[in-house]
Write a structure and sequence with these properties.
By secondary structure, the chain is an alpha/beta fold. It has eight helices and 14 strands. It has a five-stranded parallel β-sheet with strand order 2-1-3-6-7, sandwiched between helices. A four-stranded antiparallel β-sheet has the order 8-9-10-11, covered by helices on one side. Helix 2 runs parallel beside helix 3 and helix 6 packs across helix 8. The longest helix has 17 residues. The radius of gyration is 18 Å and the shape is globular.
Length: 225
């Protein structure tokens, strides 16, 4: 899962990023409005954590822009302004949650998980696709009730594919989502092939159908044949 942290307090942004990375998220940070606006237009995020007060704009406008581009990202406002108007305005224009500063990082992490769960998996703590069952909190995958051993990237790849089932996902998008925005600088994405191959083999060996379809020259699609 990929998170964008829009926070002008560098120390706080770094603390949030480090904590969430330790909880298996890929994190990008933007310290001002212009960079945040650029990043939401370049990349797809599962959740955007946004401060209202930025040096060159308002976090509320970031939320409005996310809605304009129909971003599927969940949105959590973090702000020192614990005012009723800020909460009402933020939630009114599409934010999913609001957390007043100061806050415990564990609480922010719990809210991120909750927002992603509500937005992508209809609030369920378990992701199910036919014979495949995923428990994201435990990072556990079962096929026909048999637990299979996936690497971190294979697990993240499976969750990403099921979250985007029936859509064609390019190799570039997979690389950027699982490894971060620095993947923009990579010339070849052929390394994605080995991760997909290994994931597919483990699922099939455990009894799952072959849901991963190769879209030649583009990427992959996860769906029933």
């Amino acid at each position: 899962m990929k998170i964008l942290i829009v926070e002008d307090e560098k120390d706080l942004a770094e603390s949030i990023s480090a904590y969430l990375k330790n909880n298996d998220y890929i994190c990008d940070s933007a310290l001002d409005f212009d960079n945040a606006d650029l990043m939401i237009n370049l990349y797809q995020y599962d959740c955007v954590i946004v401060d209202i007060t930025l040096p060159d704009g308002s976090g509320l406008d970031i939320i409005k822009n996310l809605k304009k581009i129909n971003s599927p990202a969940g949105i959590i406002i973090i702000s020192a302004k614990n005012a009723l108007d800020d909460k009402v305005n933020g939630l009114g224009i599409g934010a999913d949650d609001y957390l007043a500063k100061p806050f415990h990082l564990a609480e922010l992490n719990a809210r991120v998980r909750s927002v992603i769960r509500r937005r992508q998996f209809e609030g369920s703590p378990v992701i199910e696709f036919n014979e495949i069952q995923i428990q994201p909190e435990e990072r556990k995958v079962q096929v026909l009730e048999q637990t299979i051993d996936l690497t971190k990237k294979e697990f993240d790849l499976l969750v990403y594919m099921i979250s985007n089932k029936k859509r064609v996902i390019t190799k570039e998008t997979i690389a950027e989502h699982l490894w971060g925005s620095q993947m923009d600088l990579v010339d070849s994405f052929e390394f994605i092939y080995s991760h997909v191959k290994n994931l597919r083999k483990k699922l099939i060996n455990a009894g799952a159908q072959d849901y991963i379809q190769t879209v030649y020259g583009i990427g992959y699609r996860f769906e029933e044949k």
